Amino acid sequence: MISTKKSAPRSAKKATAASKTLWLPDSIKNVSSDEKWSNEVLWDLHETIVNWGAPIANLAKQLYPHSNFDPTKMSFYNAGFDPSCNLNPYEWEMVLIQALTHGLYGQLELADKDTHRQMWNIAKSGTRNRIATHVPGASDISHTDKIPYHSNVAQRLTLELIKRLNLPVDVERDVEFIYPHRKKDFMADRYIPLIIEDNIETAAGVATYAHACILVPKSYNAGFKCPNVLRLDNRSELDTRVIAFFKELKRLNLLRPY
User: Fold this and answer.
1) Is residue 11 part of a domain?
2) 163: closest CA among 171, 151, 154?
3) Residue pair 174/43 in contact by the 8 Å Cβ criterion
4) pLDDT of residue 16 exceeding 50
């Protein structure tokens, strides 16, 4: 028996596939014509682009042999306050200070093998990649003893790391060392519509400014839901999501030149 059922046209199939990857909150579309968005995506660095948790776990074990810190099992972003981690807040900050002042920030590797390809795909599509990361400098104050770190080696090593990883980011122009709670203001001041993050606190802050955030999947952001925040099921869809986001803004004539 010959089937008379017609398959969907190829163009319709492509449109359906594109609609599945397109995520664009209404607040991003509802802007006035004289306030167009910048064709730029902002990235967090640690645990979003580079693997920070595993090296920190190794360092924690060296400093405190009793440490059970496992970045893949954390329920909360700050391990010093996570009940499942047996390091207290003071011990956790001592681990971070050692990491900042003894070169670990220059030894990190990509969080996922596809991250490099994804960032370059986004760059080739015409969208500029920028990085905003919290890497304390010499004058920043420790939370526990209120004493300055007196070292900015971590910031220098971070810039060298970005160069070494051959990321499509101009370290002289497109890297900002900034506290997490300031990222939403950084985006608003520069009309950057989208950030890639792992921290739900930053994601929620960005959402309060009616901007957009894509969360890479981590144990400590599982189950998080918030308007203007999309938590991915898999990192493999990251570049297609970002490219579709900006492609639609361009179609709507809501992008401005760099």
Assistant:
1) no
2) 171
3) no
4) no
Asked if residue 217 belongs to a domain, the reply is: yes
Kindly indicate the confidence band of residue 100, based on its pLDDT and cuts at 50, 70 and 90: confident
CB neighbour burial string for 107-123, b if at least 16 within 10 angstroms, e if fewer:
ebeebbeebeebbebbe
What is the phi/psi pair of residue 152, to 5°?
-120, 20
* Residue at 2 is within a domain: no
- Interatomic CA distance for residues 204 and 160, integer angstroms: 30
- Model pLDDT for residues 174-199, shown as the tens digit of each residue: 999 999 999 999 999 999 999 999 99
| Structural domain contains residue 9 | no
C-alpha–C-alpha distance, residues 148 and 172, integer Å = 25
Residues 87 and 8: their CA atoms lie apart, in Å, by 57
Write out pLDDT tens, residues 128-158.
Answer: 999 999 986 545 555 555 555 555 688 999 9
Answer yes or no: are the C-beta atoms of 187 and 42 closer than 8 Å. yes
Domain that includes residue 172, residue range: 23-256
Q: What is the pTM (predicted TM-score) of this model?
A: 0.88
SS3 (DSSP) at 110: strand
Q: Which residues sit opposite 76 in a β-bridge?
A: none
